[in-house]
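Design a sequence for this backbone.
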């Protein structure tokens, strides 16, 4: 199976879904009514458009290759098999507030002979930014940008080579839970004064991809939860294939299916950043 070719077919589906979602975002909405639509267990705004986009992607992508959905099979995943992982809109609050930083994500998961699951292909599409990141295992990562005239530019991406915190550009994320947010803010406070800038924009999938393309030197966030899995798994392949580094705050590998304090970096800056992350690791 040619993962790069498969990814390009999926991109066409995701792009179509993204245009539909973007069209809805640009319509006038009553923000109070939209926000009052009950927040779901992921503490994200649930919307009808989100569900429609997911259904559309599920139906069209499984017409390309009829792999099972990772959520549907649960613990019955089989060694050697592939599974689709299609996420909700990542950055749903940005979407609801008419900000451009939100994405639609798709990953293809592979279960190895030991029964461990790893992302093998990732797509992160930001419709309002006209930008798509694509990566497949062993085939590198590319960014597709479309200008106002509709012209498409494809380019291979790679991280920066910044080795120190001094003069770097970092990004961090934090959750709605106060203890997790405190750890993020305390880490930022310890680092402040060394980087040229420390940004907080989100969503996680976009922040990860911006490490992969050199916009940021590193990104960190405490306790990414199970509901972040679809977005993070797609963006993880982009980081890996761009030759960036992705791990937990203590330097160990991401454990898919568990909560993770994650850090993505260009590689050279990791040694300088790690002591600050270790000082605020969760239990």
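Sequence:
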């Amino acid at each position: 199976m040619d993962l790069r070719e498969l990814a390009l077919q999926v991109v066409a589906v995701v792009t179509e879904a993204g245009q539909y979602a973007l069209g809805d975002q640009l319509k006038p909405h009553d923000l109070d009514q939209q926000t009052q639509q009950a927040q779901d267990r992921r503490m994200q705004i649930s919307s009808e458009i989100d569900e429609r986009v997911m259904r559309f992607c599920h139906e069209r992508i499984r017409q390309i290759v009829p792999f099972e959905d990772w959520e549907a099979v649960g613990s019955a995943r089989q060694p050697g098999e592939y599974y689709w992982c299609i996420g909700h809109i990542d950055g749903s609050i940005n979407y609801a507030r008419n900000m451009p930083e939100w994405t639609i994500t798709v990953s293809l998961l592979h279960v190895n002979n030991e029964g461990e699951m790893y992302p093998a292909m990732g797509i992160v599409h930001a419709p309002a930014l006209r930008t798509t990141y694509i990566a497949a295992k062993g085939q590198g990562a590319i960014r597709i940008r479309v200008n106002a005239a509709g012209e498409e530019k494809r380019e291979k991406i790679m991280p920066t080579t910044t080795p120190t915190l001094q003069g770097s550009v970092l990004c961090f994320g934090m959750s709605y839970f106060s203890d997790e947010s405190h750890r993020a803010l305390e880490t930022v406070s310890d680092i402040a004064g060394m980087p040229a800038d420390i940004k907080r924009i989100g969503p996680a999938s976009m922040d990860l991809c911006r490490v992969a393309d050199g916009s940021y030197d590193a990104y960190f966030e405490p306790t990414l939860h199970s509901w972040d899995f679809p977005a993070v798994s797609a963006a993880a392949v982009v980081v890996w294939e761009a030759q960036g580094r992705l791990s937990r705050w203590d330097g160990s590998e991401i454990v898919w299916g568990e909560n993770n304090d994650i850090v993505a970096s260009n590689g050279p800056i990791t040694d300088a950043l790690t002591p600050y992350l270790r000082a605020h690791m969760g239990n």
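The longest helix spans residues 3-25.
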